[in-house]
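Each letter names a residue; the fold follows as tokens. Both lines appear below:
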Amino acid sequence: MLPKQKERAYTLYMKKVVVLSICLLCMVSLFASDAEMQPGSIIEKGIASWYTSDKSESLTANGEIFDPNSLSAAHKTLKFGTLVRVTNLDSGKSVDVRINDRGPFVDGRIIDLTPAAAKRADMLDSGIANVALTLIFQPDVPESKYNRAGDTGWYQIQVGAYSSLLTAYSQYDRLLNAGLRPYAEQVSDTKAVRLTVRWVPAYQLDKTVKVLAALGFEEKNILKKSEENPYK
């Protein structure tokens, strides 16, 4: 075999090895997925506040009518329909609430309660309180009247598409070594390889984005999509 023929054969062989390696790593990544948050565990600590609406029949983020007398709350990421126990760390009083809205949108605050829930948690007069959130229940399917990205409670994040298999493998390896769950697939009708980080629970989205930023993947260049629950 001529030297150039040997070189082409070796290049073809290495490309096949890289593709096979990516596929195998994808399978290992899937089986290495972490378990979901377990009921009974404290999932967050921070400042709680309460909110209300001066408009009749205003809607919550999941499409329900806001009811100030219900034991419900707004959270930035938890799946709609999730039940959490909010414990006032100053008084010891607690209340179980159902997540049906998004917020609070004030730095340092982790949950917004309805007036009725705030009264049960002994923080209606103070307005805010240091609290701990304990997970009680998390539905498989979010209780929402909409089907927007993230409403499933899980995300996949597209980080890039690469025409070079070696580059794709190198980036895959970096993501895997960072503790993420990368997934590789061929872009339709092209030889490019698309890389995504998959099976990101909503409560870990911000942390995952920060890890990606540290690896050089800027948030403005990544695409967040809704993801099916891998544990269904």
